[in-house]
Design goal:
8-stranded mixed beta sheet; 5-stranded mixed beta sheet; 11 helices; elongated; alpha/beta; 326 residues; 15 strands
Amino acid sequence: MTSSHEHYMWRAIDLAYRAEGREVGLNPRVGALLVHRGRIIGEGYHQRMGEAHAEVHCLDSVAESDRPLIPQSTLYVTLEPCAHQGRTPSCAKRLAAEHVGRVVVGIPDPNPLVAGKGVAILREAGIPVEVGCLSEACEELTKVFLTNQRLHRPYVLLKWAESADGYIDTLRHSAEERPVLLSTPYTQLLVHRLRSQYSAILVGAETLRLDRPELTNRRWLPGPYSPQRILLSSGATAPDGWLRLSKLTPESLSTLLEKHHIASLMVEGGARVLQSFIEQGLWDEARVERSPLLIHEGVSAPHLPEQATALSSHRFAPNTITTYAP
């Protein structure tokens, strides 16, 4: 792919990131850009599940005076245009009807209803198509949707904070005993921001008993939206408004996606629950906050497998947050 293609695809990716994960739901984040001889004449992104896709927003944004330029323009889109009639019409057929001059695609769509069919519709209409522009960046952008489609379960993020000597808390026996606070006010704000981007949040029975957590994103986004709360327990009763997962299996996670439309899941604890996700390989990302505090003895932090890869590390003094992939 040429550098000019990448330049415009980065813009399409940037547009796609404007979408809120909770708004697109089970749909992917997608951005689209229409360019005529170096001038952007249209752009758009998928904003809400069930509403117009990025390509439609892009085409509809073209000024009336620029519409004759569409057949001589290149459309950049982060994900293969859809081929089927769902809640909205086929984007590939709309592009063909508009006689778009060329289409540059970031990554193919793994959805069986699309999976190459969108590209085929365009090529059958005589529109040149290139696939693979900034594919890694487009995969990262679309990671939740791709996990849903490929693994048939929610995208799973594990999150915990640990002391410098590898503990997440002291040994406590009742809710009256206060937990050790390892996060700072600022990193707590970051956690609440992260919660606002996930469909659901999960804890185990011991965390529910000892911490009585609210599991809302109140520090970041006050209002009615917070992730769906889930209790993982074979015996404990879930509070009103919570879902209960009796056991952790690939099938139970698939049920969360298929029955409850949970596209992404944030797991906040406790240590045994987090370790069970790790041991079963049912995770896609881990966010570990490390504090310089020493606890000396208590609840040991979960252990990631040796092959886990550190993707990024950022210091929010005095703590450091590192993100890992399996």
